[in-house]
Automatic annotation (TrEMBL):
InterPro entries found in the cross-reference section: CodB, Pur-cyt_permease
Residue stretches spanning the membrane: 20-39, 51-74, 95-119, 131-149, 158-175, 195-213, 225-251, 257-279, 304-322, 328-349, 370-403
Gene Ontology CC, one term: plasma membrane
Major subcellular location class: membrane
Subcellular location: Membrane
Keyword Signal: no
Protein name: Cytosine permease
One Pfam family here: Transp_cyt_pur
Bilayer disposition of the protein: Multi-pass membrane protein
Organism taxonomic ancestry: Bacteria, Pseudomonadati, Pseudomonadota, Gammaproteobacteria, Oceanospirillales
Any one Gene Ontology molecular-function term assigned to this protein's record: cytosine transmembrane transporter activity
Length: 421
């Protein structure tokens, strides 16, 4: 713990990690309860044949987006909030810091409350223990994030194989109960949903996480490792979560694997799955908040920001505000992907695939082209009836490309006051 995971600088080559380490951390991040709930909505609306190719396509698009950002992160050694300084400006990047940080603290509150409520319900403990458990888990789950990448790596190397084994046990048992694929093919949808809407659900549930997965892909030893690890997490791992939720709903009318395992009689495994599933996402979530907070405040004290974020998330959980935050956080999921579009266009079109060293770079206070492109992408995503996250990325990237060719005074970079003197 001699450093704080380089919150304000590039990750040096000496600190880079291999494929196993990078994959474990990213897979731990994507093993997420809310993704299974999203899969549950798909399980009610499609036959097994339709469901499989929709899950395949949706997660392929999600994985491609996250892997593209992972490549840039590894090449530059920077995460999304630090790359935001190039495409939004020194002060303009604070917008992305706030949006990214706020979504993560909201999800942390949700996860903290969820594990307390589910644990009380599952074990039959008295309800008055919910609040003390929220406080315990709210601060307990941030310990590995405080340690940093190494702490999350240790946890994920144990948790990911264990969760994978639990999931496979549950899926095998479910297929036996459903009489295999022949039995699943006889189940008819009970709800209605369009294919485009279903793909939007798959992408939308975790594309905000894909935008911030650069916090770990920048630690990869090579771009190839970063891309493979990210695809493993967001195509395979996230796809498995969606499939698990969908099959659980089709067979047991339960999307969450914890409820499914209990229905199958695996109570001990269900409790272990609950802890590991929530913990490996919670520490990644609060780590994301800390990184955004460090860039917002321009401080190296990542561990202090981590504890502060955990405290805020715990207060929100105890106050019951997490119930009100979820719809807003899902809405913000529409506004986060355009940031990735601007980052991609800025890296390849303006900087020709190589950022200058952040410490010596002369950056404007506000990159007006980047901010304008983001606003156009976010607006397009908000009004788009078809695949809003992808529309936001494409419009933001395309707008930035066009604006780079426009030579107009109002679109010029706003230079810092020191540069004007």
């Amino acid at each position: 713990m001699h450093h704080s995971d380089y919150p304000l600088s590039e990750v040096p080559l000496s600190a880079r990690k291999g494929l196993l380490s990078t994959s474990a951390v990213l897979l731990g991040f994507t093993f997420f309860t809310a993704t299974m709930w999203a899969g549950g909505t798909l399980g009610q609306a499609f036959s097994i044949g339709q469901l499989l190719w929709i899950i395949l396509l949706g997660n392929l698009l999600l994985g491609a987006y996250a892997a593209t950002l992972a490549y840039i992160a590894c090449k530059s050694g920077l995460n999304s909030v630090l790359m935001g300084r190039f495409c939004f400006g020194e002060k303009g990047s604070k917008l992305s810091d706030f949006i990214l940080g706020f979504t993560q603290i909201g999800w942390y509150a949700w996860g903290t409350a969820t594990i307390a409520v589910v644990l009380v319900r599952t074990t039959g403990m008295p309800e008055w223990l919910e609040i003390p458990l929220m406080v315990l888990f709210g601060f307990g789950f941030c310990i590995t994030a405080m340690i940093g990448y190494k702490g999350m790596d240790w946890l994920s190397r144990f948790a990911v194989p264990a969760m994978m084994m639990f999931i496979l046990i549950s899926l095998f048992t479910g297929l036996v109960d459903a009489r295999g694929f022949a039995g699943l093919s006889q189940k008819t949808p009970t709800e209605s949903m369009g294919v485009a809407a279903a793909i939007t659900v798959i992408i939308g549930t975790f594309i905000s996480g894909g935008t911030q997965a650069t916090n770990w892909s920048r630690f990869a030893k090579s771009p190839k490792i970063a891309v493979i690890a990210t695809m493993a997490a967001f195509f395979v791992g996230n796809g498995l979560m969606v499939l698990t939720g969908a099959l659980g709903t089709m067979i047991y009318q339960q999307a969450d694997i914890v409820d499914v395992l209990i229905a199958q009689g695996f109570v001990t495994i269900a409790v272990l799955m609950l802890f590991l599933n929530i913990w490996t996402t919670q520490d990644n979530t609060i780590y994301n908040f800390a990184v955004a907070g460090c860039n917002l405040l321009r401080t190296e004290k990542r561990r202090l920001v981590t504890v502060g974020g955990a405290a805020i998330g715990t207060v929100l959980a105890v106050g019951g505000m997490y119930n009100l935050l979820i719809p807003f956080l899902v809405l913000l999921g529409t506004f986060i992907p355009p940031m990735g579009g601007v980052i991609m266009a800025d890296f390849w079109l303006k900087h020709k695939g190589r950022y200058p060293a952040l410490e010596s770079a002369q950056l404007p206070d506000f990159n007006r082209r980047g901010l304008a492109a983001y606003a156009l992408g976010a607006g397009a995503a908000y009004v788009s009836p078809l695949l809003p996250p992808l529309v936001g990325v494409v419009v933001a990237a395309g707008s930035y490309a066009v604006l780079l060719r426009v030579n107009h005074a109002t679109l010029g970079d706003s230079l810092p006051s020191t540069a004007k003197q």
